[in-house]
Amino acid sequence: MDNALRTARILLPREGVDLTRWAVVACDQFTAQPEYWRRADALVGDAPSALRLILPEVWLNEGEARIPAIHSAMSAYLAAGVLTTAVADGFVLVERETAAGVRPGLVVALDLEAYDYNPGSASLIRATEGTVLERVPPRARIRAGAPVELPHVMMLLDDPGKTVIEPLLEHRERLRKLYDIELMLGGGRLRGWAVEGEDAWRVFDAIDALSERADGLLYAVGDGNHSLAAARKCWLDIRDALTPEARATHPARFALVELVNLACPALVFEPIHRALFGVDPAGLMAEYSAFLRAEGADEGEGDDLVAFDGAGRTWRFKSKEHPLGRLQRFLDGYLAGHPEARIDYIHGDAALRGLIDRPDAVGLMPRAFDKAELFGYIRRHGVLPRKTFSMGEANEKRYYMEAREIL
After folding, report:
1. Do the Cβ atoms of 203 and 164 come closer than 8 Å?
2. 346-112-92 Cα angle (round to 5)
């Protein structure tokens, strides 16, 4: 049975590198808070760091200028031995302590041939939310020509019996410890162990058993779908020029991800809020109310969606289904008709309220999506609206630590 799972040669910084300054939070976090990234830059200084190997999306409009430096830093780290082989052929078991609790995961390679983000896909690996196609090329430009990848993709398993990751955690004392560090800027603690030999083969057996019960959907992308889509694009761009033999084993065919069990109590689904700027708040909410009535969905006042502005006004909406599908359709149409308006997607109630401090801004807070519904929803309906949920707060996202050569 091909379950798309592969072992990998996994790289980590050599002994002596300060791993607290090496590990950096996922690039798609704190996009409205550049000060976070300035603080990270100040903490890193001249030390080797994953910060030099990624493009924080807050600086995405500077991509063309920054990408050559990223590729150069990757090559320099390889040449100087900053990145060395930590696991010759296997996985990395990780344990992350955050405010939400302890979250175990397993860093593995997955076959991009088994991934399709298009709505209606029946692939073994699927997106959970809509993919914004224009967001893929900038990420693909970073990956194309990059000698290494660093994953921030978190891939979900629906494993209520806790058969894949948790048995490794229970017996981690027999595994080779790789690191145990405090993460920068309130990221919590991160530990890692090598999973090799017989322990790795037990993972294959557990995934095979889980696949038999998965009804065609074994892996669902929780975080990092656009980066995974960029990895697939880069693979497709070179695939047809390869011989069948090279195609089967080329490192670009695979992507490093962290598997996380949906059943983990520390895996908390947080709503992703919308902040709109350059709008008339009262006019915007009047248009939304009219949109709901036109769709026959005006279901009264409740807390399924709460909107507010800087003047202290609040609007509340109740919905029989999760409100985000209709809300996003409305916003897409509204933004198309109001080029002066701008939208941002915000993690965290406090962060959103801190941004809505001007007369032309509105904050929109949908209720959280129940994670227990996720796999069943994807099987029945396909992807959720983009930016439906976030797995934890921004500083609880995956930090870049492991790497893998892809050229």
Report:
1. yes
2. 75
What are residue 167's phi and psi, to 5 degrees?
A: -60, -35
Longest alpha-carbon distance in the chain: 64
272-389, what's its fold? 3.30.1760
> pLDDT for 86-99, tens place per residue?
999 999 999 999 99
Whole-prediction pTM? 0.87
Scan for tokens 């029945």, then name that residue: 380
With contact defined as beta carbons under 8 Å apart, do 170 and 271 qualify?
no
What lies within 8 Å, CB to CB, of 368 at 6+ separation is 269, 270, 271, 389
Look at residues 252, 279, 283, 282 and name the one whose alpha carbon lies nearest to residue 360: 279
Backbone torsions φ then ψ of 270, nearest 5 degrees: -105, 145
CA 177 to chain CA centroid, nearest Å: 25
Please, what is the angle between helix 281-294 and helix 324-337, to 10°? Answer: 120
SS3 category, 234: helix
Q: pLDDT class for 30, splitting at 50, 70, 90?
A: very high
